[in-house]
């Protein structure tokens, strides 16, 4: 029900354990304080006169200053230790940090309002979906194309801000195969709520299969609607913003569409991926995700459904 309470990676587990520990410490303090207040109320309830007033006790003051300070230092220390284990700090070079030299397995770029994902080894590019093998600790480089976003997969990793002009690193790892919901966790404009993504964790063999499938170039469409749609796609300058590998479309403003048919959702989670929904989206993206960078091209129903047919052939 609450993904934060169902950790599926060592990092998320460590965060959850720390949360429980801090909760327990707070509960003990709460019980002591609330208990003392209750006792004072109970004992003082029937007194008609003021109890004996006593001012200043150096000994007691020292106790209640040193006690809380120790507790706060303890929590700070265990939190700092946790940060060291969950943050994937970049490796440092003798000549200082050169970010181009930092080895990352995945580069994730936050855009208003979608996520671009690059697998650095294979060069595979995804949008709003991250396929990963289980049991492997992946270093993720986070960067932004525009404003501050925040990358968060509650079951797998900590939250990490995605800041323009800066690179942040975290570990992403899943112990069990499954689908994990991710979210942008920093308000970034009017479609912040629709900046979702999913992490699909596959068994290593399955992941290798997925990787091999992604590397095969998509075939040219043969169905008549798709062929018409392909012409319209280029006539309507879709290629000014999008990439479809193996074509002249090589722009990177919008999501890479090379394999859009294999995606389960479109618009960073706003609609399930189907020909009907893609047609709706193409007819007027602004009606579905107001403010998104894709303009309304005033396509007719036929044009939209033909382009949708072309895109659904890209698998
Ligand atoms: Cu991106 Cu909120």
Name given to the CATH architecture of the largest domain: Sandwich
Task: Please indicate the count of domains.
Answer: 3
Helix-strand pattern, N to C?
A: HHEEEEEEEEEEHHEEHHH
Ligand types = dinuclear copper ion
**Which fold name fills CATH's third level, the topology of the largest domain?**
Immunoglobulin-like
If helices are DSSP runs of H or I spanning 4 or more residues, what is the number of helices? Answer: 7
- Radius of gyration, in Å, reads 27 Å
CATH superfamily of the largest domain: Cupredoxins -  blue copper proteins
Work out the number of β strands.
12
Low-confidence stretches: none
Q: Strand percentage, roughly?
A: 15-25%
Shape: elongated
Q: Please describe the biggest sheet, giving its number of strands, its sense, and whether it closes into a barrel.
A: 5 strands, mixed
Pfam families: COX2, COX2_TM, Cytochrom_C
Catalytic activity: 4 Fe(II)-[cytochrome c] + O2 + 8 H(+)(in) = 4 Fe(III)-[cytochrome c] + 2 H2O + 4 H(+)(out)
Cofactor: Cu cation
Domain Cytochrome oxidase subunit II transmembrane region profile: 1-90
